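go over my protein:
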Amino acid sequence: MPRADRRRDRASPASPLGPSLSVSASASFHERKSGAVLYLDIVLVVIAAVPALALGAPVLGFTVGAVAWILGRVVSVEVERRLASVGDLRRRLGLGVTSAMLRVWLLAVTIMVTGVTATRADGLTAALVIFGAFSIYLARSAFAHMAESRESAR
């Protein structure tokens, strides 16, 4: 198969090589699912607060971790919404990667500042809350991407 034909096939959503690159891979998933599923990470952070604090987790660390994660998610949702209106794919991808890396750095700095200014236990608790919420967010995003890939293959 000539090289140009292979490139065209890769760009086709029904290509046997899979779907083309998408900055917002879970857009149709967002349209179909309820808010509780879309924001499962935030819901579970709020629900986990009660037993975690009742069992003696540091209040400051849990609060800082939860607030940092929730604010970061709210900002990222708004950034994704605005990125959807950017027409140039290179610019959209660049801005998307930049905002994701900025979010990671802000969360890391939040954890370090909490650990240095409060206690190490507070910093560890903030890190665990953020890591747990990120793990749930990543799993939900992976499932959303798989669902969209299956839909586009049809």
